[in-house]
Inverse folding.
């Protein structure tokens, strides 16, 4: 991606993370100056995070500070020195299952950390705050496709609850301090440089090593798998389109995706749910080997299906994710083989 953008200084949290790495690369390609912030938490292999970071540090226009976003004083000092026009907040504690055993980590990173970002944006006004939410906020919602206009008040994991809390916190700051905020509900992001805790990464690793893969409720599960390049495109584009108040907002019939404040929420998904068995077949084909499956029941916090309505994103940007898994998964497997020298 190389194009002129309507902003040139971005503070990006989670720069060494999967999505943060790809977004930072795109911003640098467009000539944007980026201050990356990350604490390189060992939730998964820090060596992978460091490898991403090393690539960014070799780029002109990129600077980096290792810090915990829950440390407000440190974050505020970074804002004061860098004076970003746009903030892209991708730093968070991810993972549904990990939240079952480590809830306090989520409170610190996703609640205290997000509050620090909001407060820093209040004290050092920015043109736009874009932050990562999650399709997990839809929780027990049985209506598909998932629409931002529907309620999202029945999360089935603490991770989802913290992401929904982020949206509510963002609205309060948009309302009180007129900070334009846009929340992005990601749907199962995958691709090169991805997270080792994600199923596609685990499947690839196990298949190439000749080990069984753990498959949870295979016949019941489907996901709206979204290739990371599509996520990146949506973020970089939306960052240049600050949220505005909805002139048609009706407080008697509230819409979770808009507000009388400068506040918006968008789904970012491939709007094509894929059954887990088909997904595994595509991974097998890309690996050139058949998986040995160990069938297990669904885990607590999992939802059976995700499916994004992206009409709001398309109306705002003219873009909607389209990369099929038959294209994205082979790209990931090629990267995996190259990175791990297999």
């Amino acid at each position: 991606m190389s194009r002129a953008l309507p902003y040139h200084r971005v503070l990006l949290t989670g720069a060494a993370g999967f999505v943060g790495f790809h977004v930072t690369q795109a911003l640098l390609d467009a000539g944007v100056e980026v201050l990356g912030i990350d604490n390189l938490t060992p939730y998964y292999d820090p060596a992978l995070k460091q490898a991403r970071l090393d690539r960014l540090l070799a780029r002109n226009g990129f600077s980096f500070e290792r810090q915990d976003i829950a440390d407000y004083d440190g974050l505020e000092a970074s804002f004061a020195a860098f004076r970003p026009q746009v903030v892209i907040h991708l730093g968070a504690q991810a993972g549904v299952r990990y939240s079952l055993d480590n809830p306090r980590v989520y409170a610190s990173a996703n609640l205290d950390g997000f509050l620090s970002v909001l407060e820093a944006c209040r004290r050092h006004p920015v043109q736009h705050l874009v932050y990562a939410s999650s399709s997990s906020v839809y929780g027990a919602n049985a209506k598909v496709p998932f629409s931002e206009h529907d309620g999202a008040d029945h999360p089935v994991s603490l991770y989802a609850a913290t992401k929904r809390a982020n949206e509510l916190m963002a609205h309060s700051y948009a309302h009180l301090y007129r900070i334009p905020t846009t929340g992005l509900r990601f749907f199962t992001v995958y691709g090169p440089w991805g997270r080792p805790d994600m199923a596609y990464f685990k499947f690839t690793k196990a298949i190439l090593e000749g080990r069984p893969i753990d498959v949870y409720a295979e016949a019941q599960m489907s996901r709206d798998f979204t290739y990371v390049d599509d996520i990146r495109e949506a973020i970089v584009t939306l960052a240049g389109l600050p949220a505005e108040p909805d002139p048609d907002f009706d407080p008697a019939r509230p819409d979770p995706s808009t507000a009388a404040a400068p506040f918006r929420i968008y789904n970012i998904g491939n709007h094509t749910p894929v059954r887990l068995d088909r997904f595994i077949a595509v991974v097998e084909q890309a690996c050139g080997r058949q998986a040995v499956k160990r069938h297990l029941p669904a885990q607590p916090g999992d939802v059976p299906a995700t499916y994004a309505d992206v009409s709001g994103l398309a109306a705002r940007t003219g873009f909607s994710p389209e990369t099929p898994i038959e294209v994205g998964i082979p790209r990931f497997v090629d990267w995996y083989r190259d990175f791990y020298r297999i």
